[in-house]
Amino acid sequence: MVEVSAERRQNIATLIEPLRVPPGRQVDLARDFDPGYRSDLVRKKQGRELLRTGIDLLAEYQRRLAAQGTHGVLLCLQSLDAGGKDGTIRHVMSGVNPQGVHVSSFKVPSATELGHDYLWRYARALPARGDIGIFNRSHYEEVLVVRVHPEVLARQGLPPAVDDTAGDDIWDRRYREINDWERYLTDNGFAVVKLFLNLSKDEQRERFLKRVRVPERNWKFSPADVRERARWDDYQRAFSQMLSATSTSYAPWYVVPADHKWFARLCAGAVLAHTLIGIDPQYPTVSEDVRRELQSVGRELEAEAPDGSATDQHKGHHKGHPKRHPKGHHDGHHGGHHDGHHDAEAATTANGRAGTANSRGKRTRTTAARAGG
Ligand code: AMP
Ligand code: MG
């Protein structure tokens, strides 16, 4: 089991600290956050390497999250077009078992979706316990694009009492409803991680231009993107108010500087790692009875070994408590509590080969639930 050293934990916390929006703070994006910011602590080459080791860390934590099956994580990604949401997901989640991660992309709502309350489609896509759910755009569009374009709100079919509320009250109410919803989720074991990829107007221009000029990128570009760009200031205002109203102690916003992709990805990985370290999921342990049963099964399997072959290559790992493993035997690993090292290996094996009852059963249930819903 990978144990994160206190120093590494501290480095992660230090890296993301300046990005967190303190609850209650009135944010003015242009004044408070620089899209071109990079930490003095890391340079590009080193940053790429850090992200690689961070990806391994996330993979291990995701295995533990899935094995424990108590907590889920919801990662919400918001940004303007070309902010780097897709690339961030691709890079940060590249080491994680695909069975434990579900990405949901939210587009213009369908007629069916418009027939429901505005949080409905997001609630349907929430992660199960043990899963990491990623929202590529999220319920926050309901106070962003919907706010910038009143005609989108008009299509939502709200009753007059809600629709006709004077002035900005509808947005204050939505902020409150979203905060309440996230409070409910965190209270029930689901961490809500919110990243705003903060892009500068000029960097967006560059990235759009690339999408226009490079044929392989053309598909990513739509003329509507330019129309949205024309509303830049309105979006900046909507983002600022959203960040001010919905960064809470239980689900704070992180404003990730997005002009340098490598730094944005490093930060996104660091915030997610910080969350998982905070949850600290553990592999489940088995009762004494089950342990005895496993030992007896182990003896039977040994007896079945073909003549001349080793009876059990794993024997050393099965005996005794991991704390009794000779020091230096496991480079970079510590036999933590809960028989961690042994179970970490079992879970790793589950990805490639046989699998443990635990991860197997859990995954199957998840898949079945999803297929049914
Ligand atoms: P993309 O992420 O580039 O595939 O674009 C998705 C589009 O869907 C964007 O233009 C969003 O503004 C739009 N969109 C996402 N959520 C909503 C929503 N709740 N209401 C209206 N439009 C939305
Ligand atoms: Mg787009």
Task: Summarize the model shown.
The chain is α/β, with parallel strands linked by helices. It has helices spanning 6-16, 29-32, 44-68, 85-92, 111-114, 120-124, 145-148, 150-154, 160-163, 169-187, 201-213, 223-229, 232-246, 261-279, 288-303, 315-318, 340-352, 357-372; strands spanning 72-79, 101-105, 132-136, 190-198, 253-257. It contains 18 helices and five strands.
What does this molecule look like?
With 373 residues, the protein is of the alpha/beta class. Helices cover 51% and strands 9% of the residues. The protein has 18 helices and five strands. It has a five-stranded parallel beta sheet with strand order 2-3-1-4-5, sandwiched between helices. It binds adenosine monophosphate and magnesium ion (MG). Adenosine monophosphate binds next to helix 7.
Helices and strands, in order, run as HHHEHEHHEHHHHEHHHEHHHHH
The CATH level-2 architecture of the largest domain is identified as: 3-Layer(aba) Sandwich
Structural class, judged by helices and strands? alpha/beta
Each distinct ligand: adenosine monophosphate, magnesium ion
Uncertain regions spanning at least 5 consecutive residues: 319-373
The CATH class of the largest domain: Alpha Beta
State the assembly state of the protein chains: single chain
Instruction: State the fourth-level CATH superfamily of the largest domain.
Output: P-loop containing nucleotide triphosphate hydrolases
Helix content: 40-55%
Number of domains: 2
Mean pLDDT: 86
CATH names the topology of the largest domain as Rossmann fold
